[in-house]
Each structure stands twice: as structure tokens, then as C-alpha cells.
């Protein structure tokens, strides 16, 4: 049976900086602040599922560049390793405000090994504290899609 | 729906059997079946039940997919990269003070003329689901090997469907292979049926050879536990009737199964 779960992740950074990685939070995520119940910087796609990234929203009080990055070995982040990242898309916010990218065709990431995942990073000329919102649809069982 | 099929217009929009229709429960490991006539649905009009969080208790020992065994940090939360067992007690807002077996399994009953059909929708939907009949007995198999939520294969995600026979308690395993702990929830569509157990060989043959419309639900087991077998004998007097192979003459089949049917 095919299942689909649409999740909206809110990405934040804890302090202003010129670069960094967003921590992702969703309303169904159990968070206490103590490991392992903390917002996650790396989202690993469960084995055999695919993640469709439908929408990215970037918001900042200063110009910022956000990148959506993919790693085939993202799961190693949680075992002390260092994943290798490749950029899937870049979002340039040229001035204070927000940028919404609503994909007509989503970015699809297949979890072939159960280790694939994504992260969102930012860089800016000045110290900023941007936020992102990412809408991800998890699909399992849709083998013909 | 993965487990239930129909011949004729037998199921309603909720996937439940309409009144006054036949329901076949097929048991794959024995190639036998029970045939019921659904006389009426007790919960007609309120088939949808929001259970609330999964009954994951903080004293439950979960098993880590990568070795980090955790326990649910609070009731209803499944830890990251772990799978956890649970029973299915009634949700607190449904029955005030359940006791005995009912406190372990909300659909527990001891009436041969009653049958539950249950469809469970789990959130987040990626949660791996597995049923155990009875609790602790894995009922997922791949090519003669027992598997489960701890394996890449042999599990479902987000959904279970089954019937509840009298006298039995079912258990469950829930797996979360996501890297964060999650609040869970469970929605249930169920039919609480009053049924007649069909033992007339003529009707049985007609139903099992699809000459009479019926709903056909597969009992989700790969082996029949002795507990299950005993309860079938206790409440029905037999362990199901053999499903006729295609082309089997009616009288030949009746002669073969007549001795197995309760009188």
C-alpha cells in the first residue's frame, strides 16, 4: 500500500552568523533539548522511501544565500562521520524579505540505501539569522512513480 | 487496501462489510477459511475512531536499528531509529475502567457471534507496522523466513488491517527508522459486526467458489499459533473449512469437508 506524508520543516539557526546549517523542526517532532530529542541538522530519508521537496521558503532580515544539499551518506552524521555534500539548489535572497520557491516539479530524492539525506546551509556577507521552511513529501510504495 | 477484496458490491466507502453480506476470513497457512454472514454493524454511523497517541509506554524496551536501544521518552512518542512493541488497550477517553484482557486489547471479546474488522492508520505514516498474533508471535514472512520491522523487508508502513476473533489478544510492533523521535497517532476505522458463522456446506461452497458475493479478507498470519487454534475450536468448534480448489465438484468437496464442520 502506498503511503504519503507531507511534512513542513521549519529551519532555524540559534544565533546570528555569516554561515551555518539550519536545524529542522516539525510539529510532530519530539524535542526536549537533550540528545537525541533535538531538532536535526541532517534529514535522513528512511530506507526505501523517496522524499519530494515541493517548496522552500527563505526569510531573512539581510541578504543571504541558502543551499539545499544532498548526501548519499548523510546517515553517517549520526554515527560521528562526515557526510559529503552536493548542492541541489541555491536560493539567493538579495535583500531583506522572503523568497518562496514552489516547485512545479519537485526535487525527488530516493533512499536506495537508507543513508541518503539532505541539509540546508546558508552564507551571508553580514551576520544574519535567517529561517527556512521546507515542505517535504515522503512517499513509500509508489514503485511506478 | 492490501488485505481485503470483494466480489460484488459488498464493501462500503469505509472498506467495511455492508449488512447482510458474506465475509470470508481466509487463513493462508492452512488454506482454510471461516465464512460469516454479517447480520448487522453495531457501530453503524460511528465507525471512525481517533485513538490518540500509540500506546507506547515509557517502561517499554525498544530496540535500535543501529544498536542504540531507547525507551519512549513519554507516552506515545516513538524514539528515533528504534522499534517498539505494544499492546492496544482502549484509549482513556473511550472506556473508563477496562480490566482483564480488555485492558490489553481494546477489541478483545468472547462472543462467537461477534467479529471486529479493524483498519488502522498510523501517523507519521512512515512508521513501520507489524501485527503479532498472539503478542510476541511475528506474522511476517519472506520465502519461509520470519521477518519483521527489524528487517528491510517484511513490514508495512502506516497501515494495518485485520479481523479480531473471539478470545484472542493481538500485539503490535512499531518501527521508526527516521532520525528523530516523533509524536504518534492512530486513527481507526472499525466494524463491530454481529455475525452468523456459516456451516452449511452448500452455502460455503457457493461463497468460496465466488458464486455468491462476499468480502474476502486475509487473516494476517503466516503460521497458526496453538493459542489461535484453541480459540477457534473453543468458540467455533472447528479451525475453518478447506477452500475448494478450482474445478472441484461440489459434492466431492462437501463429502471431504463434512466431517470437519461442527454439527
Outline of chain B, from the CA principal axes?
A: globular
* Chain pair sharing the greatest interface: A-B, 28 and 27 residues
Structural domain count of chain A: 1
* Largest sheet entry of chain B: 9 strands, mixed
Q: Compute the gyration radius of chain B: what is it?
A: 19 Å
The DSSP helix count of chain B reads: 3
Q: Unreliable runs of chain B, pLDDT <50, ≥5 residues?
A: none
Q: Which of globular, elongated, flat, extended, rod-shaped describes the shape of chain A?
A: globular
Number of helices of chain A: 0
CATH class of chain A: Mainly Beta
Strand content of chain A: over 45%
The residue-averaged pLDDT of chain A reads 95
End-to-end distance of chain B:
35 Å
- The class by helix and strand makeup of chain A works out as mainly beta
Number of strands of chain B: 18
Our Rg estimate of chain A from Cα atoms comes to: 15 Å
What integer is the average pLDDT of chain B? 92
CATH-assigned fold name of chain A: Jelly Rolls
Uncertain stretches of chain A: none
Derived from helix and strand composition plus strand pairing, the structural class of chain B reads mainly beta
- Biggest sheet overview of chain A: 5 strands, antiparallel
Amino acid at each position: 500500500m502506498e503511503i504519503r506524508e507531507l511534512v513542513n520543516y521549519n529551519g532555524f539557526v540559534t544565533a546570528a552568523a555569516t554561515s551555518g546549517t539550519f536545524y529542522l523542526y516539525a510539529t510532530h517532532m519530539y524535542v526536549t533539548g537533550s540528545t537525541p530529542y533535538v531538532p536535526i541538522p541532517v534529514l535522513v530519508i528512511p530506507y526505501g522511501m523517496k522524499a519530494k521537496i515541493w517548496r522552500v521558503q527563505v526569510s531573512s532580515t539581510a541578504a543571504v544565500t541558502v543551499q539545499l544539499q544532498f548526501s548519499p551518506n548523510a546517515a553517517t552524521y549520526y554515527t560521528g562521520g562526515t557526510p559529503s555534500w552536493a548542492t541541489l539548489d541555491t536560493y539567493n535572497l538579495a535583500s531583506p524579505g522572503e523568497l518562496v520557491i514552489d516547485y512545479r516539479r519537485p526535487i525527488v530524492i530516493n533512499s536506495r540505501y537508507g543513508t541518503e539525506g539532505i541539509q540546508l546551509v546558508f552564507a551571508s556577507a553580514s551576520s544574519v539569522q535567517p529561517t527556512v521552511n521546507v515542505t517535504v513529501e515522503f512517499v513509500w510504495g509508489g514503485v511506478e512513480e | 487496501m492490501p488485505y481485503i477484496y470483494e466480489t460484488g458490491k459488498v464493501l462500503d466507502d469505509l472498506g467495511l462489510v455492508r449488512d447482510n453480506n458474506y465475509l470470508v476470513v481466509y487463513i493462508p497457512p492452512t488454506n482454510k477459511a471461516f465464512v460469516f454472514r454479517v447480520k448487522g454493524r453495531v457501530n453503524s454511523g460511528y465507525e471512525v475512531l481517533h485513538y490518540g497517541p500509540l500506546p507506547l509506554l515509557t517502561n517499554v524496551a525498544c530496540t535500535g536499528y543501529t544498536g542504540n536501544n531507547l525507551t519512549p521518552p513519554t507516552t506515545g512518542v516513538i524514539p528515533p531509529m528504534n522499534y517498539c512493541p505494544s499492546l492496544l488497550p482502549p484509549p482513556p477517553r473511550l472506556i473508563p475502567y477496562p480490566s482483564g484482557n480488555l485492558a490489553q486489547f481494546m477489541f478483545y471479546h468472547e462472543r462467537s457471534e461477534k467479529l471486529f474488522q479493524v483498519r488502522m492508520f498510523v501517523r507519521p505514516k512512515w512508521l513501520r507496522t507489524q501485527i503479532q498474533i498472539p503478542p510476541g508471535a511475528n506474522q511476517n514472512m519472506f520465502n519461509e523466513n520470519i521477518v519483521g520491522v527489524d528487517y528491510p523487508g517484511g513490514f508495512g508502513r502506516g497501515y494495518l488491517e485485520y479481523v479480531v476473533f473471539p478470545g484472542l489478544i493481538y500485539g503490535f510492533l512499531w518501527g521508526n527508522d527516521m532520525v528523530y523521535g516523533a509524536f504518534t497517532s492512530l486513527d481507526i476505522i472499525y466494524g463491530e459486526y454481529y455475525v452468523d458463522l456459516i456451516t452449511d456446506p452448500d452455502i460455503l461452497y457457493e461463497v468460496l467458489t465466488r458464486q455468491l458475493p462476499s468480502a474476502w479478507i486475509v487473516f494476517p498470519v503466516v503460521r497458526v499459533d496453538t493459542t489461535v487454534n484453541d480459540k477457534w475450536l473453543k468458540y467455533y468448534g472447528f479451525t475453518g473449512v478447506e477452500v475448494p480448489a478450482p474445478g472441484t465438484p461440489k459434492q466431492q468437496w462437501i463429502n471431504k469437508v463434512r466431517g470437519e464442520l461442527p454439527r
